[in-house]
Structure formats: structure tokens, C-alpha cells
Automatic annotation (TrEMBL), chain A:
Protein name: Acetolactate synthase
Family (UniProt): Belongs to the TPP enzyme family.
Keywords: Amino-acid biosynthesis, Branched-chain amino acid biosynthesis, Magnesium, Metal-binding, Thiamine pyrophosphate, Transferase
SUPFAM superfamilies linked to this entry: DHS-like NAD/FAD-binding domain, Thiamin diphosphate-binding fold (THDP-binding)
GO cellular component labels: acetolactate synthase complex
BP GO terms, sorted: isoleucine biosynthetic process; L-valine biosynthetic process
TrEMBL record, chain B:
Function: Catalyzes the conversion of 2 pyruvate molecules into acetolactate in the first common step of the biosynthetic pathway of the branched-amino acids such as leucine, isoleucine, and valine.
Family: Belongs to the acetolactate synthase small subunit family.
Any one Pfam family match given in the protein's UniProt record, by short name: ALS_ss_C
The keyword Zinc is annotated on this UniProt entry: no
Protein name per Swiss-Prot or TrEMBL: Acetolactate synthase small subunit
Any single biological process term in GO: isoleucine biosynthetic process
EC number: 2.2.1.6
A GO molecular-function descriptor: acetolactate synthase activity
Recorded name of the encoding gene: ilvN
Length: 584, 186
């Protein structure tokens, strides 16, 4: 059966066929025909944002918490350029998104028409792939291909630029089943010889460690289940990057906590001292490796990644395995069991003893106060009071983000949404709305810093309009805290423009939006205030006034290896050399 | 072969590759990249090189299969073995790239470049230019009383050598196509 329809109708039809239930967007001249089609149907919900950057972060929150691609619709010119930060954010963190942008009609392209921007040119390095569709006959097929590209292999954002005349013109709709998915079929099955080598190493390693990342989450729930099996069967210790939190439960006995620049002492020292490192879906980011030359000097390394370019990009590995985490882990487990499920028991026992000594350092210990709320304490209480609830956490970027990663425990994947690779302030609030839209009944909390939160606070209007009862838990230190911390450590305590002045009254701001505002500055009131936030049936802006000069520890200063970690204030004098200061 | 399906043995992504990838010595490599002939595909490839700080020493591109919409991009690049491997892997990630071949690593290859030289002069210099052109098997494709245009095909080294000889004889302009390359044998 061939169906004739306009390009605009094709867009909506293709989205329906792809199982899309929600689109985050903002209208404008170049997408009016598509908005007209959205108006005339009820299957797809449209969430009207307040700024296109917000739409993309919402779609990211939606995607990360569901495993499904997030969909965004924006107009030409400023609509598309406003979406750019979100696209790069999704690219860096491998989040599947399909972004549709309007464009001036084909006959006007290149004439500097009103609201014309070279959107495919601008977004080429910001997307996994993008298309300018100049012919309505190719539109539906392109949309189906776009979903395939966004979600297969290493996921990422894609963009389709659709000129207005293409939306008006009529052509034949190509259904999903008839779409050519071209050659784009990334390899998912690992090389059996490499898997065998990894298994052999697992059998003899004295000091193994599993170093996991966002790839485990992206590979789907089966990957997390297999990972848990692998840990349970081998008794290997496991750590994770910021992006991978929750794929192994924080309550699991083999959990060492997050690694990296603000990671746990035991995790970083185990990475430094291991003799076998098994990287599963992580990418040796510079926040993880510290000084590359001294990174885990005595280990053999295996790396499982679906993206061949991740392998040997930063750290040379001994056993590269290109493949999907789920498929590779399944094979690794099968083969390892078939060969007798052997590990080096004596070695492991010594290794765990060593790890216990590192754990005993209690690197997250902080000096609490009964007068001011310590940010760490606020998160400890938030954790205690929300444990066991159907809870999702998003964050902004800064100290609060690192403390959230350290002090909140994640038992399952897809429960933790944070901007890792790009570190985008302004991510958390819109992301929390995207999560809430996908999980209307869940408790969704954005752990925020006051400065980051202001960057996209207009989206509170979206939360109100669409009844998304998101909780904005703002750790307000009246500082660009992370910047201030670096200035303290690296720039002689010259706090150049790193404080938040003229802050709004957050409670009044909440009232202005029509939601609830809560302010808390006394540690004794904190539990009640948090409970009030949780119980309130609607969005809440929680202004939690915390200690202003708290530093986030542990910290591996830029340019230092893992074993030169700072544990607390006492360690900070003159630590970062001139060389480290040029690094970010 | 799919874009991300890496042929075993052809790149260092095999665990059993014997090349010394730790070497810090820069090497020149010729890459053949088969791409979908679509708008923007060249920008994707070039953008990758500029965005990630890789070198392009020479670049040629043309459609090679009209019905299959395939173009062939030949890039001569330089870098340490690790960088060359990264370039290959990064190219393989581009959705419109079908195949990436490192012709330098995969075995002997034929490399050819076409160049045009405008040489102006009179008297002995003019005669000497013509004599050298014959030795180099360059063709005269345009001549006036005071100038020649020579056309020559050869390896980049041969073209460089000819240009060096023409310089003192009145070389005014050179146009080069960049390298086209094919691996030897079937
Ligand atoms: C869009 C953007 N601009 C600048 C930065 C640099 N930056 C990183 S953390 C930070 C301060 C964040 O302050 P706040 O949100 O209050 O969090 P805190 O560190 O105080 O917890 C800044 C400016 C960034 N990450 N993103
Ligand atoms: Mg702050």
C-alpha cells in the first residue's frame, strides 16, 4: 500500500511508526506545517519548552532514563543554534536523540533569508550524523534512517534539517520496513580470540579490577545484569565512571565507588595498583586517567567498546575488543565458565585485604557542623530520606555534582542523569523534566548548584505547564563553587568572578512560577524540609543554604597520577604545579 | 565491508598486529576512503582532520561509481602510527564512509599525481626546459613564443624533482591534482 501525504504529515507519521510518544519542541515559521500536523492528532504529546537548549536536555533526560531515543523539534535559525549545546552534550555522552529542525524553503537556501542558518554545517561536528532533506520523497526514509543511526552502535544525536517547502509538498510515504538502512551496521560481536585472551588473563590475575562506564548503561539492562553476574562469580572489585553509576549497585559488596578526579581513594588506588584492568564501556577520559604517562603503570589492560575509535585513543591496551557490552560480556562469562570458572583465589584474597586498608581511610569523611549545612551532609540526608523510593536523580555541573556522585547510591542503571563529557551547566533542570515526563509517578530530583540552575531556570514554566513535579534541590553556596575551588588551589585564592551575587530569592521565585519554594539553612530543620519537598504534589524549588567555602575531596589535581590524590584541606598547600595549571 | 567492520590484520585494532604502534616517528600514509557521494561528505572528512588536529598533505576526490553513488577520497597524511590508527578509526565512524584503506600499511600501492607547469623564458633557458621535459616525459600542452605549459604524471617525488629543476628556468605556476592511489595486484 502506498500512501501519499505532505512532508509535514510524514514527519508525524514516521515518529508514530518509530513508537515516539513525546516530542520536546518550540515552534517558529519554518516548522509551522509540522506544528499544524501535531495539532491534529493525539498520539504524540508535545512538550512546549521555554528555550531550545531546554528541549534538547529534556530529550536527553528522557532518553537516558528510558533507553529510548529522545525527540526534539525546533525552528530554523535561532531555534537550531539554540539547540547546539544540547547536541554536543548528547554527542559527548553518547545519548540517542533525533532532532528535527525547520529550514527556509529550498529555493531560498544560500540567500541569507530570514532565520536562515547553515544548520547542517553548524551541527556537522555536533552530531553523529545529519541530513538536509531537499526532496519530500526522501523525507520519511531519512527519518527512519535517522532513528537507526541514533540508536545503533555507539548512540548519539542526529539532526534532520527540513526546508519549509519540503514540508508542504506531497510524496509517497516510505514505511519503516521498506527503509534501506544502508551500510550502517556497526559490529556488535567481539573477536573470539581477543575474548579468549581476556578470559585467560582473568584466570590468573592477582589484582584485577573492572572499570565500567556509560557504555554499560547504553548497552541496556541486560548488560548490567551480566555485569552483576560477572562480579558475583569472579569476586573482582568494580569501579565506575560518573557516566556508569548504577550499572552495578552501590550496595554491592564489591563496589569501590566512583573513580576519577573526584573519585574514591580505594577506587583510584586500585586502578593504579591493579595488574589486570578490564575496561567495560568507558573511554579513558582525562578525568579518569590523570597524568597519562603514569596511569596504572603495572597492569595489562583489556578494553570492551562498541566504538573502534575509543580503543587506543588515549591509553594503549593489550586486549582490544570491539563489540557491544552485552554480547561481549555474555561470551566472556560463557567461555570463562566453560573453562572451569577459575580465578587466582590467593591473589584475590591479598588484593581484597589491600583494598580494605584503602577503604579504611574513609576518604569521604568530612567535618560536619551543627550550625551550617554541609553540602555533603545535605546529600547524606537526601540519600537517607529517599532510599528505596522510585527515585531518579539529575544534576547540574560543579561541586554539587561531584558530591551527588559520591554521596548518593544508585542501585540500578538509568537512574542517574548528569552531563559528564561536556559538563554543561544548565543541564539538570530540563533533564529532570524530561525524566519526569517519561516517569510521571517517580520522584525526580535535580541536585543543583545555584549558578548552574539559573542558566535554564526558565524551564520551571515548562514544569508547571506540564505538571512535572520535579524537585529542584539547590545546594546554594552563593559561589561558582568548583571554579572557586580551583582558584583557591591554583590561582592564589584570587576569587575572580566566582561568586554568585544578586541571587534571586528562590522562594519568591518559586511563588512567581506558581510552585512551592522551601528555604533551609539550619541542619536541624533539614530532614523536615526534605520530607516537605518529597511530599509536595508539584514542582519544588528547594534553596538549601550550605557552607560557602567547602572543597570537594578527594581530588586528583590536574596533571597528577592517581596515587597523588588530595584527601582533605591539609593536603592542598602548593599542590598543583605550573604544568597542571594549564590543564582544565 | 561495513564501515565499522574492521578487517583483521589490516589495522592495529587486531590484538595480533605486529606493527610498532608505540613509535613516535611520524610516517606518511596514503588513505583511500570510499564514501557515499552526498552533499557535505567531503566537509565531514575534512572537518574530522581539522577538528582533531590531523594533517592533510594531499587530497583528491571524485565520484568513482555513478550508479552506486560512491566517491573515492585519497588523502596523504602524516603522523605517528598511533595517530594514523586513530585517523582510520575516526574515519570509519563517519556514517557516510563505507571503507577506509591504509594503502601504505596494506602493501605495495601505485601512486600517481598529475601536474601542470607554466614555464616562461627565452633563449637557452627555454631550450633547457624543453630538454628536461623530454627526459621527464612531460608533454607540452600549450606553447607560446615565451612560455610552455608542461603536463606530467608521476609520483609526488618525481613532480617535486621536476619543479625543482624548472624553478631556475622560469617556473611561474604549478597546478597539482593531489595523489590518486591504488593497491597493486588483484
Ligand atoms: C555552561 C558552562 N559554563 C561554565 C562552566 C564552568 N564551570 C564549571 S563548574 C562552575 C560553577 C558552578 O557553580 P554552581 O552551579 O553554583 O555549582 P557549585 O560548584 O557551586 O556546586 C562553572 C562556572 C560550565 N561547566 N558550563
Ligand atoms: Mg554554587
Amino acid at each position: 500500500m502506498t500512501k501519499q501525504m505532505t512532508g509535514a504529515r510524514m514527519v508525524v507519521q514516521a515518529l508514530k511508526d518509530q513508537g515516539v510518544d513525546v516530542v520536546f519542541g518550540y515552534p517558529g515559521g519554518a516548522v509551522l506545517p509540522i506544528y499544524d500536523e501535531i495539532f491534529q492528532q493525539n498520539d504524540i504529546r508535545h512538550i512546549l519548552v521555554r528555550h531550545e537548549q531546554g528541549a534538547v536536555h529534556m530529550a536527553e533526560g528522557y532518553a537516558r532514563s528510558t533507553g529510548k531515543p529522545g525527540v526534539v523539534l525546533v525552528t530554523s535559525g535561532p531555534g537550531a543554534t539554540n539547540a547546539v549545546t544540547g547536541l554536543v552534550d548528547a554527542l559527548m555522552d553518547s545519548i540517542p536523540l533525533v532532532v528535527l529542525s525547520g529550514q527556509v524553503p529550498t529555493f531560498m537556501i544560500g540567500t541569507d533569508g530570514f532565520q536562515e542558518a547553515d544548520t547542517v554545517g553548524i551541527t556537522r561536528p555536533c552530531t553523529k550524523h545529519n541530513w538536509l532533506v531537499k526532496d519530500t520523497a526522501k523525507l520519511s526514509e531519512t527519518i527512519h534512517q535517522a532513528f537507526h543511526v541514533a540508536t545503533s552502535g555507539r548512540p548519539g544525536p542526529v539532526l534532520i534539517d527540513i526546508p519549509k517547502d519540503v514540508q508542504f509538498a506531497t510524496a509517497t510515504y516510505t514505511p519503516m520496513e521498506k527503509t534501506r538502512l544502508q551500510h550502517y551496521q556497526p559490529r556488535t560481536k567481539g573477536d573470539p580470540e581477543a575474548i579468549l585472551r581476556l578470559v585467560e588473563m582473568m584466570e590468573t590475575a592477582e589484582r584485577p579490577i573492572l572499570y565500567t562506564g556509560g557504555g554499560v548503561v547504553n548497552s541496556g539492562p541486560a548488560a548490567s545484569a551480566l555485569l552483576r553476574d560477572l562480579v558475583a562469580e569472579t569476586d573482582f572489585p568494580i569501579t565506575s565512571t560518573l557516566m556508569g553509576l548504577g550499572s552495578y549497585p552501590a550496595s554491592g559488596k564489591n563496589w569501590l565507588g566512583m573513580l576519577g578526579m573526584h573519585g574514591l581513594y580505594e577506587a583510584n588506588l586500585a586502578m593504579h595498583g591493579c595488574d589486570l584492568m578490564i575496561n567495560i564501556g568507558a573511554r579513558f577520559d582525562d578525568r579518569i586517567t590523570g597524568r597519562v604517562k603514569d596511569f596504572s603503570p603495572h597492569s595489562r589492560k583489556a578494553h570492551i567498546d562498541i566504538d573502534p575509535s575509543s580503543i587506543n585513543k588515549v591509553i594503549r591496551v593489550d586486549v582490544p575488543i570491539v563489540g557491544d557490552v552485552t554480547e561481549v560480556l555474555r561470551e566472556v562469562l560463557r567461555l570463562w565458565k566453560e573453562r572451569g570458572a577459575r580465578t587466582n583465589k590467593a591473589g584475590l584474597e591479598k588484593w581484597w585485604k589491600q583494598i580494605a586498608e584503602w577503604r579504611a581511610v574513609d576518604c569521604l569523611a568530612f567535618k560536619n557542623s551543627d550550625k551550617t549545612i554541609k553540602p555533603q551532609y545535605a546529600l547524606q540526608r537526601l540519600e537517607a530520606l529517599t532510599k528505596g523510593m522510585d527515585r531518579y536523580i539529575t544534576t547540574e555541573v560543579g561541586q554539587h555534582q561531584m558530591w551527588a556522585a559520591q554521596f548518593l547510591g544508585f542501585e540500578d542503571p538509568n537512574r542517574w542523569m548528569t552531563s559528564g563529557g561536556l559538563g554543561t551547566m544548565g543541564y539538570g533542570l530540563p533533564a529532570s523534566i524530561g525524566v519526569q515526563v517519561a516517569h510521571p509517578e517517580a520522584l525526580v530530583i535535580n541536585v543543583a548548584g545555584e549558578a548552574s540552575w539559573l542558566m535554564n531556570m526558565q524551564e520551571m514554566g515548562t514544569a508547571m505547564q506540564f505538571r512535572a513535579p520535579v524537585k529542584q534541590f539547590i545546594l546554594n553556596n552563593e559561589r561558582l563553587g568548583m571554579v572557586r575551588q580551583w582558584q583557591e588551589l591554583l590561582h592564589g585564592e584570587r576569587y575572580s568572578h566566582s561568586w554568585s551575587e544578586s541571587l534571586p530569592d528562590f522562594v519568591k521565585l518559586a511563588e512567581a512560577f506558581g510552585c512551592k519554594g522551601i528555604k533551609c539553612s539550619d541542619p536541624r530543620d533539614l530532614d523536615d524540609a526534605i520530607m516537605e519537598m518529597i511530599r509536595y504534589d508539584g514542582p519544588v524549588i528547594f534553596d538549601c543554604l550550605v557552607e560557602k567555602h567547602e572543597n570537594c575531596f578527594p581530588m586528583i589535581p590536574s596533571g597528577k597520577p592517581h596515587n597523588e590524590m588530595l584527601l582533605g584541606e591539609a593536603d592542598t598547600q602548593g599542590v598543583i604545579g605550573a604544568k597542571g595549571a594549564v590543564l582544565v | 565491508m561495513s564501515a565499522l567492520n574492521i578487517k583483521k590484520g589490516s589495522t592495529s585494532h587486531s590484538a595480533y598486529d605486529l606493527r610498532d604502534s608505540h613509535s613516535q616517528v611520524e610516517e606518511s600514509h596514503t588513505l583511500a576512503i570510499i564514501v557515499e557521494n552526498e552533499p557535505g561528505v567531503l566537509a565531514r572528512v575534512i572537518g574530522l582532520f581539522s577538528g582533531r588536529g590531523y594533517n592533510i598533505d594531499s587530497l583528491t576526490v571524485a565520484e568513482v561509481d555513478h550508479t552506486g553513488h560512491r566517491s573515492r577520497i585519497t588523502i596523504v597524511t602524516s603522523g605517528t602510527p598511533a595517530v594514523i590508527d586513530q585517523i582510520e578509526a575516526q574515519l570509519g565512524r563517519i556514517v557516510s564512509v563505507y571503507e577506509v584503506h591504509d594503502l601504505t600499511a596494506e602493501g605495495p600501492a601505485v601512486q600517481r599525481e598529475l601536474a601542470l607547469f607554466k614555464v616562461a623564458g627565452k633563449g637557452d633557458a627555454r631550450i633547457e626546459a624543453l630538454r628536461l621535459a623530454e627526459i621527464f616525459r612531460a608533454n607540452v600542452v600549450d606553447s607560446t613564443l615565451e612560455s610552455f605549459i608542461f603536463e606530467m604524471t608521476g609520483t609526488p617525488e618525481k613532480i617535486d624533482a621536476f619543479a625543482d629543476l624548472m624553478r631556475p628556468l622560469g617556473l611561474r605556476e604549478i597546478a597539482r591534482t593531489g595523489v590518486a592511489a591504488l593497491s597493486r595486484g588483484a
